[in-house]
Amino acid sequence: METLLADINRLRRERRAVILAHTYQAPEVQDLADFVGDSYGLSVKAAQIADADLIVFCGVQFMAETAAILNPDREVLMPDPEAGCPMADMITAEQLRQFKAEHPGAPVVCYVNSTAEVKAESDVCCTSSNAVKIVRALGDVPEVLFVPDQYLGRFVEKQLGRRLVLWEGFCPTHYTLGPETIRKMKRLHPDAKVMVHPETRPETQDEADYVLSTGQMVELVKATAHRQFLIGTEEGIIHTLQKAAPDIDFIRLSDFLRCPNMKKTTLAKIKTCLETRQTRITVPDDVAAKARVAIDRMLEISARK
Ligand code: SF4
After folding, report:
1. Ligand 1 pocket, residue 261 CB under 6 Å
2. What is the spatial distance between Cα 111 and Cα 149, in angstroms, rounded to a whole number?
3. What is the pLDDT of residues 111-158, one digit of tens each?
4. Binding site membership of 85 for ligand 1 (Cβ less than 6 Å)
5. Which of 15, 46, 146, 210 would be a feasible disulfide site paired with 195, CB 3.0-4.6 Å?
């Protein structure tokens, strides 16, 4: 492992590479990254990178595509290009065009967990940390289409007290966490607070003390007086949380909260990726230009006070 890390560190210097990792990545991948964050944090970071020739993206395809859209003059590489997101694949651009045709004039809000082609058909993107703010910013329009995650959409509906027209996509990993598991774990750990992600089902969210994006979870644990949390999102976040708050006890709510795609990236693949400059993620110019409008609109609304 030490030789592998030494090789990666040499190669990243030689290649002038920056390594970005999502909080759902394995601990050893997070530990070597230049920046670890949620999809919003990584989007912002990708847009701000000034002094690197290469971006190595340790996450899933839609995230690397977003980095490529925001960095058209840099190579964006994925150590394992097969790391996809089943939720993102639950809607195609053609299906979205049909959905829009059924609701003429309604703006489309697209969760960043979507392909570049779907973003290109959307008016504005959102992440789990800013979805409420983005939908609110659209004002009092009669209909808003929300794709692809129905559960994040239901979370936004609850916060804003309004209905959205939801696409019926979902995250298969977060779907596995049911309310009965939380009730059982609360009985075993009565002093613990429960945090879940808005990609979980509404009845699961109803059992939680906090429904937060991963970035918001990290901010909360840095400031809280609570000493024990039950965690209802992908297990990789526990490493991030433990580093942010070493004195807090974090407990996984379930053994099923492991996204197989997020775990495809390994140190060996990162080394090979730096050596071979493979695999480059690209987005066709016309798709990237349209998707960028939706991403930039999200970044602009999200930065508003
Ligand atoms: S955790 Fe869910 S939403 Fe995230 S990449 Fe995996 S399948 Fe997609």
Report:
1. yes
2. 7
3. 999 999 999 999 999 999 999 999 999 999 999 999 999 999 999 999
4. yes
5. 210
Could you tell me if the CB of 87 is within 6 A of ligand 1? Answer: yes
pLDDT band (50, 70, 90) for residue 46: confident
Task: Evaluate whether 38 touches 127 at the Cβ level (below 8 Å).
Answer: yes
Number of residues written out for the chain: 305
Does the pTM surpass 0.85? The reply is yes
Beta strands in the chain (DSSP E): 17-22, 35-37, 54-58, 75-77, 108-111, 124-126, 145-147, 165-166, 193-196, 210-211, 228-232, 249-252
**Residue in the structure block whose two tokens are 């999809």:** 39
**Selection from 46, 62, 43 nearest residue 54 by Cα:** 46
In angstroms, the Cα distances linking 263 to 37, 267, 289, 297 are 16, 11, 30, 31
Q: Which two tokens stand for residue 33?
A: 């990254």
What is the atom index within ligand 1 of the atom nearest the CA of 199? 3
